[in-house]
Write a structure and sequence with these properties.
By secondary structure, the chain is α+β, with helices and mostly antiparallel strands. 31% of the residues lie in helices and 25% in strands. The chain is built from 3 helices and 5 strands. It has a 5-stranded antiparallel β-sheet. A hairpin with a 2-residue loop joins strand 4 (98-105) and strand 5 (108-116). The N and C termini lie far apart (38 Å).
């Protein structure tokens, strides 16, 4: 079984479409049960799904660019990745109301732990995602 479930790369339907598609993917993870990846793997808890949806509404709506990858980790976390040439943004959501971030772009590395999901991605990271994709922020 694969490590995670992949989400579509680019959404041409705008910010709401990108966020709605990502939210639908995140919500679909609720059907998984413990053991989904083998013995010892843990399905995302309801709180993790809810935090992922909050994060998606906050961050994806602002860029109109869904992550290039949305998946589940075997420990029950949600994982979102934006990856383009010269840019890597990894987000892990564990269901405690916060997320962890690793970003590498333009010669910079950013690492944040325990950032509230409702705050979304930092503006400089959102700007970098939009710039590397060749777009501009949605609003």
């Amino acid at each position: 079984m694969s490590d995670a479930i992949t989400h579509a790369r680019v959404h041409r339907g705008g910010a709401d479409s990108a966020a709605d598609d990502a939210i639908a993917t995140i919500a679909s993870f609720e059907r998984h049960k413990d053991g989904w990846k083998g013995p010892g793997s843990v399905a995302p808890r309801s709180a993790t799904i809810t935090d992922g949806i909050i994060f998606a509404r906050t961050s994806i709506t602002r860029t109109a660019l869904a992550p290039t990858f949305i998946g589940m980790a075997a420990d029950g976390e949600l994982v979102m990745t934006w990856q383009y040439p010269g840019l890597l943004v990894d987000v892990s959501i564990s269901g405690d109301g916060t997320y962890s971030l690793f970003a590498d772009f333009d010669g910079r590395e950013i690492m944040n732990e325990a950032t509230p999901v409702a705050s979304g991605l930092p503006v400089d990271v959102l700007d970098a995602i939009a710039a590397k994709h060749g777009g501009a922020l949605a609003g």
